[in-house]
Input
Amino acid sequence: MIVQKYPHLMAPFSVKGVHFKNHIFLAPCALSHVTYGAPNDLGIEYIEEKARGGVAQITQGNITGPGGYGDNGGHFNRYFTNCFTDMAFTELATAIKEHGAVASAEINHAGFMAGLAENSNTPPMSSMGFIREDGVEVVQMTEQMILDTVEYYANIAKFLKGCGFQMCMIHAGHEMLLNQFLSPHFNKRTDKYGGSPENRIRFPKMILQRIREVCGEDFLIELRISAVDYCEDGKDIEESIYFVKECEDLIDFVHISAGCGPETAYLTQEVAFQPEGLNIKWAEAMKKAGVKPKVVVMGGIASPEVAERFLAEGKADVVAMARAIMADPQLPNKIRRNQEEDIVPCLRCNHCLGSNKVAFFEAKCMVNPHMAHEHRTRHVPLAVCSRKVLVVGGGVAGMEAAITAADRGHKVVLVEKAEELGGVIRFADYDSIKVQLKKYRKYLVRQVMKRNIDVRLSTEATEGLIEALQPDAILVATGAKPIIPHIPGIDGENVMYATDAYYHSEKLGKKIVIIGGGLVGCEVGAHLANTGHEVEVVEMGSELAPEDNPFHHCGMMAYWSERPIHGTVNTTVTKITSDGVYGVDKDGKEVFFEADTVLYCVGMKEDTSVTEEMQKYCYDVVAIGDCFKSGRIVDAVGMGYHSAVDLA
Output
């Protein structure tokens, strides 16, 4: 008999005749797979992949109407009304339901954050009128505008029901229009839509009432709220409980999120610096208050153990995940089959939301090379003929390549000169913050060991080895080497490369200066500050970690603010001594930072030597990962995967 390890998470339930096969919902997630406001084949495949994975319910994110969202053209818009739009949304709902999931869609309006292009250049609207930082006028909504917007929401809900959706979500949280009325931080009106909590909930409640009138009791309604706004004069949990109780006969689920602006973005899109399930205390407060709707908790939940505990302890009724299911769409099925050791861990890095260097519509998952490309990568072809493949290097790129090549039917030999697999990310085993990265390394190692891969540790790819193996193809994944800056004193006994600090912690002094304020330097500094050191990060450029995701960066800076770590920019290091680091700031003034230990982290340089050597012995030699181009985990995963797929 099968014993379910996560019985609360996997138990089925029903609401008003709508059946849910487990307690895992896919929180709203939308990419810019949109054609004239409707989901295209890419977007449908993106969502359907998650339905195949066994999730109970899927909420397609950001269905808007005129003036509802930004001007990037990358959001769904029900008001491009035509046969194509109706068919596309119907196909989306069908793709969800065919796999036993319940189809929902998030109806949203950005209010003062809306752009102009989708809006015929009419001004954005909100609870209050003002001039935005970009000079755009935001108009205060009149009574008629409020009534029209009520119909806006109701019409979209009716449209979705007609397309086969069984539910809709009303987004009333974060910095969206409805929270611009709910929150006293935004709403300073003196009419019946402002002032008291009763007045501030009036407009959102009117929307819920109208949707219920139009769609009936058999169409379920979800409500997403910011339980707390995390800002000065924002609403607190008591006001949120009041709002939900006043609307509890109109809604079936309430989704608990938090935050209402860019300053608290890291509390809305939680990152690795915050614990999993940051919002559980607010969900528990809702449960204790006795609200009727089922309470759905969200917030960086990435592991089945945490999700099961929340439900078992009665702190929430349902768990919503998004990024964890982007990392591994099969997560619910793997939980159901007690295969949690095969779940690809989400790193909680938010790279899937874009970064300062990556646009949202180009965003990728760090650990899932299929994410957002399901339409062309989901079906991995088996090898035409089984070839002997030598993978040199057991880091992320090497392990991903070995796993993919073996799955395609090739005979794989993986050699690694170190005593264990992991490459550069082995440092995560010693990092006090990167719990998910540590899980990911262990996941990759497990997957390698579960396959028929000949793993040889403490082994270099010598001429003798190549002669003995006679490989048909060689994938070189030997990594990169740290760039050593030309600074007097860089060879001092108190100096080492940044990540070497993890392996030689006994050599570290109390005061540490890190030369180089890129993402790696900043994250190493966060760990060191978290483990009792006083840290100064010195950066030559004008900002710290400019390549970072804004959500991650915001969370990292908040983490810094509570620990003994500081960053100095626009400063060039001129020399290192046994006492510390000397430099020159942007005004030419000499500065000094006292240090017991100095770490440098100014970039990596590709090491092509092994690739060049391997080309003497084999026709098919491909460099992948950092030895091809120094990058991030997402680059290593992508190159490792695609190099193995390209093997004939």
